[in-house]
Amino acid sequence: MVANRSLWFVLCVFASESLGTSSPPKCEESEDSVCRIDYDEPLTMKYQREEVHLDAPPPKVLIWHLAKGGGATVLHMLRQALDRQAQQQMKLIVEDGFIGEQFWAPDYFRIGLAREPCSYYKSLFYEGNIIRNGFLHYAIKKTNREYLYDDVTRFSDWVEHVTATDRAHAPNVHGCGALSMRFWVATLNASAAHYVNQHWERKTADVKTWIRRYKPCPLADCAFNAPQEVLDFCQRDLAQKGQKLSQFDCWIRVESLFEDFDICMERYRQRGGTVRGYTHESKNVRNVPSCNSTVTERDRILIDRVDQQYTALFGYNGKCCSAS
What we know:
mainly alpha; four-stranded parallel beta sheet; disordered N terminus
């Protein structure tokens, strides 16, 4: 299930149009072959919701934290809304983590976070520009590209970099950008992240000087370091398997965070959970320039292309910077 009826409709319609399968990318006989990725790894729970008995205990809450996706606010409200036992059992998939197969079982209540792509990139840019912090900022600084964060006039150059469209050896044309790659590997295909990270380790001479947690995928310079065939497959995989994301009990979008959270808690109550009183209170909100003053028309066209499947899944078509 997703956050509201309109989004549920979008996912259902998109899924019905995307069930046709296309063949995996052609394999090449090399150690970097994209075919080393396990494209058939389990993506959804093995058990149907109908198997959950009415007298079963309340489900354990699982939340997948999308960095820059309103996680601080959602977690703050969850700590108010959930009772002590539910909080103790709650599983947080941290921003650089992956959703394992065990978390698709019927005894979990899954919550996911989402954000409109243009607004997402704007927020991610200012994390490095103003705070000089984050996985991506570390990776860009480590490769002597910190000038991409100099000022807002560099935003377009920065977007081209994190979407891999500026790569001299293999510019990304139709594959996923940073947001889609983060989303895809964390929720649907962790093996792709491991493949990209191994590919990067073999080709990075000073790899031992890097903080190990700051590997490219999912949170650092993931798209830029991914082979083109992986970026291309990301788009196709989201189109073919994106309907699996409706197995989440609810999606909370930054643009309608409080409304989506209320719906989410009502669904949790319907599944037997106890919901205490909570307040709508935003956390970790920074005063940064608006999306419209940062993202140019050229940027919008690029973002629409590299995040097209993500945009379609969550109904963000034509809504670049619409919330800011």
